[in-house]
Design goal:
The protein is α+β, with helices and mostly antiparallel strands and 170 residues long. It has one domain. The protein has 4 helices and 3 strands; from the N terminus they run ααβββαα. It has a 3-stranded antiparallel β-sheet, with no helix packed on it. β1 and β2 form a beta hairpin. The protein is globular. It binds zinc ion. Zinc ion binds next to loops.
Length: 170
C-alpha cells in the first residue's frame, strides 16, 4: 500500500494569502464562533457525564505513532508548524479537525494554507509490541494521551457542528 502524499506551495517560502485562504479562514472563524455560542447555551455537564467522557477517552488509545505522518504546514497567520495526520491521509488540510490552533500566536482556528510531508512520526517496531495495554499507559504518562483526548473532544465537537450545519443550511 502506498499513498501519494500531496503538497501545496512551499510552507517555508514566501507566501501571499489568496482570496480562497481568506474565505476559508472566515468560514472557520464563523464555525468556531458558532460553536462557542452553542456551547455557551448548552447546560453544563453533570459530574456523571464528565466521568463517562473521561472513561471513554481513557479507553480510546488510538492508532500507534507509526500510523501517523508528520506534515510541515503554513497557517493562515503565517506561522509554520508541524502536525500529525493518519498516514492514509494524502493531505493534512481535509476532514474533521483539519484547522489547528496556532501554537505560536494562539490564533484558533487557523486554516492551513501550504503544506508538505516531512515523514513518518515513528518507525514501526521490528518485533511485536508487548501488549497494547502497556503501550497505552506508557504513552499516557508521556503526555500523548492528553493531546489525543483534546483531539478526540475537538473532533467530536466538529462532527456535531457539521451535522447541525447541514440541517441548518439548505
Ligand atoms: Zn500563528
Amino acid at each position: 500500500m502506498s499513498i501519494e502524499y500531496e503538497s501545496l506551495g512551499l510552507p517555508l517560502g514566501e507566501y501571499q494569502l489568496s482570496r480562497a485562504d481568506h474565505r476559508r479562514q472566515r468560514e472557520a472563524d464563523g464555525i468556531a464562533a458558532w460553536v462557542e455560542r452553542e456551547v455557551a447555551k448548552a447546560p453544563p455537564w453533570s459530574e456523571e457525564k464528565i466521568r463517562e467522557m473521561q472513561e471513554l477517552f481513557d479507553s480510546e488509545t488510538g492508532p500507534p505513532p507509526w500510523e501517523y505522518m508528520r506534515w510541515r504546514v503554513r497557517l493562515y497567520c503565517g506561522h509554520i508548524q508541524e502536525v500529525e495526520r493518519h498516514r492514509r491521509a494524502s493531505r493534512p488540510d481535509e476532514g474533521v479537525g483539519a484547522d489547528v490552533p496556532c501554537a505560536e500566536c494562539g490564533k484558533d482556528p487557523a486554516v492551513i494554507v501550504a503544506f508538505e510531508v516531512v515523514g513518518p512520526v515513528a518507525e514501526p517496531p521490528m518485533a511485536p509490541q508487548v501488549s497494547s495495554r502497556n503501550t497505552a499507559s506508557r504513552r499516557g504518562s508521556a503526555g500523548r494521551r492528553t493531546k489525543a483526548e483534546l483531539e478526540a473532544e475537538n473532533s467530536a465537537l466538529r462532527a456535531e457542528v457539521e451535522r447541525l450545519r447541514r440541517t441548518v443550511t439548505e
